[in-house]
Amino acid sequence: MKRFILPLFASVLLLFSCNTSKEILYFQDTKIGVPQEIKTPRDITLLPKDQISIVVSSKDPQLAALFNLTRVQYRAGSSDIRTGSNNGEISGYTIDENGYIDFPILGKLKVAGLTKNAIGELVKKRLVEEDLVKDPIVTVEFMNLYFSALGEVKSPGKYSISKDKITLLEAISMAGDLTIFGRRDSIYVIREENGQRITHSVDIRSDAMFDSPVYYLKQNDVVYVKPNKVRAGQSTINENSMKSVSMWLTVCSFLTSLGVLFFK
What we know:
Outer membrane lipoprotein wza fold like, five-stranded mixed sheet
C-alpha cells in the first residue's frame, strides 16, 4: 500500500490547486485572439452637489479673465486647480440641487446630466453667440468626484475621479488589486441614483463583466470585495470554538486515513 501514498498526495494537491485556480483567476472564459465588440463607453455625467472647475482661455487674457473665478472658495471636499493663465487660484462651481451653476456674465447654466465635454461646448457656444469672446477655449475638470473601494483590496479608501470615464477594472487597479482572500465571483458595486440605492454583483472571472451596467463606474459608487471562506474562517477561529474543533477533527481524520493505508 505504500506505493499508493505518493499518488494519493499528488491527487489531493492537484484537487486543491484546481479549485484555487478557479477561485482566483480573472477572465477565465476569455477567448484568446477572438475580437470582441466594445460597447460605447459611458462618460461620467454631472449630478447636483458635484463640483467642477471651468477655465476660459483666449488670445486676450484680460477678456478671458472676466469668466474665470480667481477667488479661492473653500468647500468641503474641494481641491484647488492652478493654471498658468491666471495669477490666482481657480475655484470651482458647485452644481445646485436643480442642476444649475451661476456662471459669470452668462448667468444660470444647467449642467447636471452633461459630460465634461458637453459643458465645455455649452459655455463656448454661449460665449461666441453672445459675442463675448471670439476665440474661447474652455477647459472643464472634475473637482470632488470619487469612488470608494472597501473590503478585500490591498488599499481600501476613497479615490478621486479625474477622467471622463472609469471602469471597474481601473478602480480595482487603483486600489492595489484584490487580496488573495477576495472573492472574484461576487464583487458588489453599490450605486445611488434617482433617489434609490441598488447593489450590483459582478464576477470578474467572466467576460460577462464587460456587459454589466456597473462596468463603467459613476461618482460616489462603492466597490466592495467580499472575503472568501478562508478569510471568514480566520476572523472567527478564535471566537467560534466549534468551528476550530471541526477543522482539527477533519485534519485528524485525514491523517488517520493515511496511517491506515500506510501501515495496512
